[in-house]
Design brief:
single chain, alpha/beta, Spore Coat Polysaccharide Biosynthesis Protein SpsA, Chain A, two-stranded parallel sheet, 18% strand, binds guanosine-5'-diphosphate, binds magnesium ion
Amino acid sequence: MRSAVIVIPTYNEAENVRWLLPEVLRVLRGAGWRPLILIVDDNSPDGTADAAEEVAAKLGGVEVVRRPGKLGIGSAYIEGFRRALERHGWAEYVCEMDADGSHPPETLLEMLEHAERSGADVVVGSRYIEGGCWVEGSLKRVMISRGANLIARISTGLRVRDATSGFRVIRASALRKIIGELKGLRSGYVFQVQLLYLLHKAGCRIEEHPLRFLPRRAGESKLNKREILSYASWCLRALMRRIKSR
Ligand SMILES: Nc1nc2c(ncn2[C@@H]2O[C@H](COP(=O)(O)OP(=O)(O)O)[C@@H](O)[C@H]2O)c(=O)[nH]1
Ligand SMILES: [Mg+2]
């Protein structure tokens, strides 16, 4: 049976995990996949971890990692990836997904099938290729995302159109190649670009799949000014390193 661990970092997403987790399990199981959802929760005050445990008790296929406090999305992924490879070595794919409903479960299935069909090591859910889009994105959010992608591309040379997308399918064998290098990465949002850059440098084949990025269903975004500054500072350093090494 085809198999995947889906790592979902959460901070105050109780309302979302109640409907999203059953949906992901239903869609993947219905198509003959064996899914395990790995929630990495940063002690959310709204009880997200307990809400996820409730789904786990009812439907199985969900594991919850409870961390002591808000340590960042990048750090949550590092912890989730390590656990996926160490404890769930049966899984062929390790995925990244947001908890807020922006990433449709049906698209996750398409991305897994895309990876199966194409043999790609990484499939990124992309808003910036044909068929992908923002559904009701505010001008401000779209501009931030476009700008972030532009500087990511300049500073790393990556050809990926949506390098900041947090919706990805990664072949476990590809993730294993770089897992030792993840500890040096940043704990915040820029982790996504750093991870993709590492995979690219390790020789992985990266493809994109159209993503219709939906508005968050409940709760609030955790993207803030500090994250944006950290993002820009890393990109600037990466650019300097690239220029120097020429
Ligand atoms: N564990 C953990 N999850 C986080 C943290 N920051 C954001 N997330 C989760 O990462 C995902 C994306 O965050 P979101 O706020 O939707 O970012 P946006 O889509 O860029 O606005 C969501 O599932 C969040 O709950 C964090 O510090 N720790
Ligand atoms: Mg979001």
